[in-house]
Write a structure and sequence with these properties.
The structure holds 2 protein chains of 2 kinds.
Chain A: H1 47-64, E1 68-72, E2 79-83, H2 85-90, E3 94-96, E4 107-108, E5 116-118, E6 138-140, E7 160-162, E8 182-184, E9 204-206, E10 214-215, E11 226-228, E12 236-237, E13 248-250, E14 273-275, H3 287-294, E15 300-301, E16 304-305, H4 308-353, H5 360-380, E17 404-405, E18 410-414, E19 417-421, H6 435-440, E20 443-447, H7 451-464, E21 470-474, E22 495-498, H8 511-518, E23 526-527, E24 530-531, H9 534-553, H10 557-564, H11 566-578, H12 588-604, H13 611-668, H14 671-685
Parallel strand pairs in A: 2-4, 3-5, 5-6, 6-7, 7-8, 8-9, 9-11, 10-12, 11-13, 13-14, 14-15, 19-20, 20-21, 21-22, 22-23
Antiparallel strand pairs in A: 1-2, 15-16, 17-18, 18-19, 23-24
Helix pairs in contact in A: 3-4, 4-5, 8-9, 9-12, 11-12
Chain B: H1 4-8, H2 11-18, H3 20-33, H4 35-41, H5 43-56, H6 65-68, H7 72-92, H8 98-108, H9 114-125, H10 136-148, H11 150-165, H12 188-193, E1 197-198, H13 199-212, H14 220-228, E2 232-233, H15 235-244, H16 246-252, H17 265-273
Antiparallel strand pairs in B: 1-2
Helix pairs in contact in B: 7-10, 8-9, 9-10, 10-15, 11-13, 13-14
The chains are: A alpha/beta, B mainly alpha.
Coiled coil (chain A): 306-339
Subunit structure (chain A): Part of the neuronal tubulin polyglutamylase complex which contains TPGS1, TPGS2, TTLL1, LRRC49 and NICN1. Interacts with PCM1; TTLL1, TPGS1, TPGS2 and LRRC49.
Protein name (chain A): Leucine-rich repeat-containing protein 49
Chain lengths: 686, 274
């Protein structure tokens, strides 16, 4: 009759769990018919197993009822319970009334020593008529229809209160039950944890299968060792760190999705056993190691032992994540700074492009605005990004970050792309670039820089970044097809991207063909992302081939040489000289230059001088022109004088001729005197 | 060669008319600039090459605009060069904007002014929607008129404005027995309603203009022909008519006829070879 050693049963793995109930009910030899086993109705994972036991119990319990007489009392609603004195002596401290189809609590007379009262599996709606049982330690009202906790205020000795599977909506009226050890409220409709702060002896609290949406208000439960919250709707958990003894916390089948919502668990040093299965959080990839990392004290997670290996893994993963977060934070900082700088550069560029020259006060304002903004920006982006000097070696395999960030320009190397924003960035090409960095760069992107300025640094680019194959231009003021001629001096270009923004040249129908024609020796693969087809090349040749032919064949030689410039002069002369030689004799060294020259000569005439340089040259020539003019004028003057003289001579010649003849004839008329005259002349000569 | 008119001119004028001095000056200038290279193969050869290229019309390639504009021969050579180099563009059938044509011009002459191209485009587009696309032949012929006769056209524009405003610049010179005299000039109010000016009046003014400016104007007979076909015309209408007139084109001698514009067998051969 007296049940076996009272032990809490909570599943397979609970062997070492002892809720330490002091209520020990001794076993003694039981007559078969009244053998009853009392078990604590705790919600366990093997609940179906429990049910089975209940079914077994049913066979026993019915016999207990034989000894009970329920006489009707004077009050029509409450039956009065009376036991035979024999029973009273035998089971003086316990009374079982399970499955008695009770709808109300009967009045229990003369049982003031009762310590254990069992009303399981009835239809009781209110707890009543037990106020006199002041020695009650164990009260079981499992599986009834109780809607409110009440009528317990006199049971100051109560240690175990089982109210599972009822209809209780609120935890209340437990004020006097200060000795409560076990409180089972599973399977009710409780929405909030409240009115339990005074239960400082409570060790086990079962609130499974209720309607809790969050957990707080747990202060005061200084002895709580086990808290069962399975099968609720909990989204966050708080105050658990206020429970100094809590060892086991069951949160299976709730609605927890982030660790932040249960972060207080990390501060609880007593927790050793926790379950989260059935929560959204358990599906996350980071679930296990986040829990383990934050709760180093844990021994079991989801009913499985936490091994050292797992713990180690967790900390490793957590460290990696920390680093990643730090890295991404740094990246985002850098990105922000980059963005601000680019905005600044863009603004400066716009001002440059659309400057209104006449409106002086507006301009002043604009200038002052733009001078204010950089200082503001400078103030806001105060981060320690000093100018990098010297070479830029880095051990990291992945992207190097912004190297030089000031307010007026930005230079950035990102793996294989070198990006330059603002004309000041062009100076960075002078820097000492490490061979490794420079060698990796295959794409160079120019933004907010005048194309004419870029042209001047192309030779430097050729030397410093020999592997750059892809050029990108955006907002660089490309307006003429001619400007593409300047790109011919590079070693090789595989891809060209001209962004329509800020480059009006893209609006021309023929620009791509011109590029293909002029830079045909590069055999470009892609222009603006589209592949270059054979047809494109043919079309380009067809459209502009004649231009090249004219440029190379119809120019007089001295013009060709002067256009080609000094560097090519030698090549060109060499080519002229070797024209006669047999092709086989050309040696290796000159192959390269010969190939270049051979392919380019007819295009090479088409080059580009920036507007400023061109005007400079014209200025220089002015002097010469003036001199030439004067020189020619002198020549003309001379020529006209001579011409005049010639004409005059022509006019006068007939007359002069006649006079000459007449003079001669007159002289010779008298032969003798003429002879004498001649002799005289000869002797005079001596 | 030894025509009496030629010998009748005094020296400077003769030289000026033939622009001999321009070429001589330019030659000497080029010589100075390329001293080192030319000294290698001799001055005589240089001059030969230079004047050969002048005759062939290749001397204007990649030269500055001031030189190209300097003489009618230069201008004609430039037109011809432009046609030769970019005929293929026209043949391809592409319609380009004014800016793109200007770009092509700049390929041959880096500092070619935009205003000239704009004026040429206005002729084609009748001063309307300047961003429209133009065909190669339209543009080329309009450009020819605009570029070759730019000074003449300016004067014509001035005359046109005067006529529009009601002022007749020729009130002093109008002959009494002119055939166009019987046509009364409409009162001022009406003139502003009707478009353009009277063709005959316009024609007279232009004749006088041509007499004054002996050089660089279209053959007066042809101008008269253009104007005799209509009663009234606008400025741009007149220019369009000029540009499309075969006779004027031929008189210029720079470009082939419209029908033959796309044909250039010599260059096509070269193209095949490339």
């Amino acid at each position: 009759m007296i049940p076996g050693k009272y032990r809490s049963v909570s599943g397979r793995a609970a062997n070492n769990v002892n809720c330490g109930l002091h209520l020990v009910i001794q076993t003694s030899s039981l007559p078969e018919k009244s053998k009853v086993e009392f078990k604590l109705n705790k919600e366990t994972p093997s609940f179906s197993g429990r049910l089975l036991q209940h079914d077994l119990e049913r066979n026993y319990s019915s016999r207990q009822g034989d000894h009970i007489h329920l006489a009707s009392s004077s009050m029509p609603s409450f039956p009065i319970l009376q036991r035979s004195s024999e029973e009273k002596i035998l089971y003086s401290d316990r009374l079982t009334l399970e499955r008695q189809k009770l709808t109300v609590c009967p009045i229990i007379d003369g049982e003031e020593h009762l310590r254990l009262l069992n009303f399981q599996h009835n239809f009781i709606t209110r707890i009543q008529n037990i106020s006199n049982l002041q020695r009650l330690i164990f009260l079981d009202l499992y599986d009834n229809q109780i809607e409110e906790i009440s009528g317990l205020s006199t049971l100051r000795s109560l240690r175990v209160l089982l109210l599972g599977k009822n209809r209780i909506k609120q935890i209340s009226n437990l004020e006097n039950l200060k000795s409560l050890d076990v409180l089972d409220l599973h399977g009710n409709q409780i929405t909030k944890i409240e009115n339990v702060s005074h239960l400082c002896d409570l060790r086990v609290l079962n609130l499974a299968r209720n309607l809790l949406s969050h957990v707080d208000n747990l202060n005061g439960l200084d002895s709580l060792t086990e808290l069962n919250l399975r099968h609720n709707q909990i989204t966050f958990v708080r105050d658990v760190d206020n429970l100094p003894c809590l060892q086991r916390l069951f949160l299976s089948f709730n609605n927890i999705s982030t660790f932040e919502s249960v972060c207080c668990l990390a501060d609880s040093s007593s927790l050793s056993d926790i379950t989260f299965d059935g929560n959204p959080i358990a599906q996350e990839s980071w679930y296990k190691h986040t829990i383990l990392q934050n709760m180093m004290q844990l021994r079991q997670l989801d009913m499985k032992r936490v091994t050292e290996e797992e713990r180690r893994m967790a900390s490793v993963v957590a460290k990696k994540e920390e680093e990643k977060k730090r890295e991404s934070h740094k990246q985002s900082l850098l990105k922000e700074k980059k963005r601000l700088t680019i905005n600044n550069v863009a603004r400066k560029w716009d001002l440059q492009q659309h400057r209104i020259p006449n409106i002086a006060p507006n301009q002043d304002r604009k200038v002052s605005d733009s001078s204010q903004d950089p200082s503001q920006l400078h103030g806001s982006t105060v981060s320690a990004f000093p100018e990098e000097t010297g070479s830029l070696d880095s051990g990291l395999a992945n992207a190097l970050q912004g190297l030089s960030v000031t307010d007026t320009h930005l230079v950035e190397v990102d793996g294989d792309t070198l990006s330059l924003y603002g004309s000041g960035a062009l100076e960075s090409l002078d820097r000492n670039w490490s061979v490794q960095t420079a060698g990796m760069v295959t794409t160079v992107s120019f933004t907010f820089i005048e194309f004419d300025e870029i042209v001047q640094v192309l030779p430097k680019l050729k030397i410093k970044f020999p592997n750059s194959l892809h050029l990108k231009f955006k907002e660089t003021n490309l307006v003429m097809l001619q400007q593409f001629n300047a790109l011919a001096q590079l070693r090789r270009v595989d891809q060209l991207t001209i962004d329509p923004q800020g480059n009006p040249v893209v609006n021309f129908t023929l620009w791509k063909y011109y590029v293909l024609f002029r830079l045909s020796h590069f055999s470009m693969q892609k222009i603006n992302g589209t592949e270059v087809t054979q047809n494109d090349m043919i079309m380009a040749e067809r459209l502009f081939g004649i231009l090249a032919h004219v440029a190379s064949s119809e120019l007089p030689q001295y013009r060709m040489i002067s256009i080609l410039g000094d560097a090519r002069k030698k090549q060109f002369r060499y080519l002229l000289e070797t024209k006669g030689k047999k092709p086989g004799l050309v040696n290796e060294e000159n192959n390269d230059s010969k190939r270049l020259v051979g392919e380019n000569t007819n295009r090479a005439m088409l080059n580009y001088t920036t507007r400023d340089v061109y005007n400079e040259r014209l200025e220089e020539i002015k002097e010469k022109k003036k001199f030439c003019k004067m020189y020619m004028e002198d020549l003309v003057k001379e020529a006209t004088e001579i011409n005049m003289k010639n004409e005059a001579l022509q006019k006068l010649w007939p007359q002069m001729f006649i006079e000459l003849v007449r003079d001669a004839v007159i002289e010779i008329r008298n032969k003798n005197s003429y002879m004498k005259l001649c002799l005289q002349q000869i002797t005079d000569q001596k | 060669m030894l025509s009496p008119e030629r010998l009748a001119l005094p020296d400077y004028e003769y030289l000026a008319q033939r622009h001999v001095l321009t070429y001589m000056e330019d030659a000497v200038c080029q010589l100075l600039e390329n001293k080192e290279d030319i000294s290698q193969y001799g001055v005589a050869r240089f001059f030969t090459e230079y004047f050969n290229s002048v005759c062939q019309g290749t001397h204007i390639l990649f030269r500055e605009f001031s030189f190209i504009q300097a003489t009618p021969h230069n201008r004609a050579s430039f037109l011809r060069a432009f046609w030769k180099c970019f005929r293929t563009v026209g043949k391809n059938g592409d319609l380009l904007t004014m800016r793109e044509y200007h770009c092509l011009l700049q390929l041959l002459c880096p500092d070619f002014p935009l205003e000239l191209t704009q004026k040429a485009a206005r002729i084609v587009l009748m001063d309307d929607a300047m961003d429209c696309l133009m065909s190669f032949s339209d543009f080329l012929f309009a450009f020819q008129i605009q570029f070759y006769y730019s000074e003449f056209l300016e004067s014509v524009a001035a005359i046109y404005q005067d006529l529009l405003a009601g002022k007749n610049p020729n009130t002093v010179i109008v002959p009494t027995s002119s055939s166009g005299q019987h046509r009364q000039r409409p009162p001022l109010g009406e003139a502003s309603v009707l478009e353009g000016v009277e063709a005959s009046l316009f024609s007279q003014c232009l004749e006088n203009l041509c007499d004054r400016h002996k050089y660089s104007c279209p053959p007066p007979a042809l101008v008269k022909e253009v104007l005799s076909n209509v009663q009234r015309l606008t400025f741009y209408g007149f220019l369009v008519a000029l540009s499309k007139h075969h006779g004027i084109n031929q008189a210029l001698g720079a470009l082939p006829d419209k029908g033959d514009l796309m044909h250039d067998p010599a260059m096509d051969e070269e193209l095949e070879r490339l």
